[in-house]
């Protein structure tokens, strides 16, 4: 049984994580084949995707902030047990579009529940499984939201819909996480052109894991 690698991708809405991840996944799969797995939170399997639908549903305006945090943690737990851990135990490299840092930023700071309280709850959900590397795509909230409204207006979810100050608290919380975990989190300037962001992300991965992605 091998020990794989967990690499997470984080950032405010519209930072470009998913697009960059898809591009790199296609590229790296040519070299790594099925050793590389890509997944997302909340989601990645049937139960977690079902929880995702409840969380994202724009009709669920009455959802309490702690309920939301618990649902994200429940989806994460199922994702970890059914998707991430088995892959890591198989020695795979798992790219996850979001993980615990998202809950700390969005629920802890965005919803004002408290970053430490959310971190503690996720310690229970994950039993402390920490990514080997986190790539954080940094973009001012206004830029990320403008991209979503310009290019993805048919896919706006309940969280995208929040007011600007919510998204600004999210970004500030991410920047605090970067400062607190410089050994784990590497920042990519996501205001650059798409190709430059892909290039910069590739450089981070090649630098951190020599010989694996190049
Ligand atoms: N560097 C970039 N410059 C301009 N547009 C970009 C850039 N990166 C991504 N986009 C566009 O912005 C939109 C949002 O990108 P994407 O869905 O990848 O972001 P995301 O970080 O995954 O957002 P979310 O977390 O809200 O799903 C897409 O339409 C994408 O094509
Ligand atoms: C994991 C996680 C996610 N969120 C938020 C962040 C986004 O607004 C959505 C997910 O949408 P995406 O298009 O898949 O990025 O959910 C959150 O608030 N808390 C979390 O733990």
Written account of the structure:
- This is Thymidylate kinase.
- Its EC number is 2.7.4.9.
- It is an enzyme of class 2 (transferase).
- One of its GO terms (molecular function) is dTMP kinase activity.
- Belongs to the thymidylate kinase family.
- A five-stranded parallel β-sheet has the order 2-3-1-4-5, with helices on both faces.
- The protein has one domain (5-208): Rossmann fold (3-Layer(aba) Sandwich), CATH 3.40.50.
- The chain starts with a strand and ends in a 6-residue tail after the last helix.
- It is α/β, with parallel strands linked by helices.
- The radius of gyration is 16 Å and the shape is globular.
- It has helices at residues 17-32, 46-56, 65-89, 100-110, 115-126, 141-151, 164-180, 194-208; strands at residues 5-10, 36-40, 93-97, 133-138, 185-189.
- α3 packs antiparallel against α4 (100-110).
- It has eight helices and five strands; from the N terminus they run βαβααβααβααβα.
- The structure holds adenosine-5'-triphosphate (ATP) and the ligand Cc1cn([C@H]2C[C@H](O)[C@@H](COP(=O)(O)O)O2)c(=O)[nH]c1=O.
- Adenosine-5'-triphosphate (ATP) binds next to α1, α6 and α8.
- Adenosine-5'-triphosphate binds next to α1, α6 and α8.
Distinctive features:
single chain, 214 residues, Rossmann fold, five-stranded parallel β-sheet, 8 helices, binds ligand LXEULUCI, transferase, Thymidylate_kinase, Thymidylate kinase
- Roughly how much helix do the residues carry, as a percent range? 55-70%
Q: Please give the number of β-strands.
A: 5
- CATH H-level name... which superfamily? P-loop containing nucleotide triphosphate hydrolases
CATH topology: Rossmann fold
Largest sheet strand order = 2-3-1-4-5
Tally the helices.
Answer: 8
Total individual domains:
1
Distance between the termini: 25 Å
CATH architecture annotation: 3-Layer(aba) Sandwich
What is the gyration radius calculated from CA atoms? 16 Å
Shape: globular
Ligand list: adenosine-5'-triphosphate, the ligand Cc1cn([C@H]2C[C@H](O)[C@@H](COP(=O)(O)O)O2)c(=O)[nH]c1=O
Instruction: Tell me the series of helices and strands, N- to C-terminal.
Output: EHEHHEHHEHHEH
Sheet having the most strands: 5 strands, parallel
List segments where confidence is low: pLDDT < 50 over at least 5 consecutive residues.
Answer: none
Q: Percent of residues in beta strands?
A: 5-15%
**What's the CATH class, please?**
Alpha Beta
Structure classification: alpha/beta
Whole-number mean pLDDT: 96
């Amino acid at each position: 049984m091998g020990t794989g690698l967990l690499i997470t991708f984080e950032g405010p809405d519209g930072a470009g994580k998913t697009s960059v991840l898809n591009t790199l996944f296609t590229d790296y799969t040519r070299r790594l084949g099925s050793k590389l797995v890509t997944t997302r939170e909340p989601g990645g399997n049937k139960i977690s995707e079902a929880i995702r639908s409840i969380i994202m549903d724009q009709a669920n305006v009455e959802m309490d902030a702690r309920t939301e945090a618990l649902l994200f943690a429940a989806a994460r737990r199922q994702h970890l047990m059914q998707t991430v851990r088995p892959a890591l135990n198989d020695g795979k490299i798992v790219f996850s579009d979001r993980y615990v840092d998202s809950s700390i930023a969005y629920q802890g700071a965005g919803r004002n529940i408290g970053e430490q309280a959310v971190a503690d709850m996720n310690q229970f959900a994950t039993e402390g499984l920490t990514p080997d590397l986190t790539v954080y795509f940094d973009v001012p909230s206004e830029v990320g939201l403008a991209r979503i409204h310009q290019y993805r207006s048919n896919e706006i979810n309940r969280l995208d819909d929040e007011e600007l100050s919510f998204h600004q608290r999210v970004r500030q919380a991410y920047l605090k996480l970067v400062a607190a975990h410089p050994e784990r989190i590497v920042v990519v300037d996501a205001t650059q052109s798409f190709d430059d962001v892909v290039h910069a992300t590739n450089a981070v991965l090649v630098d951190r894991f020599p010989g694996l992605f190049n």
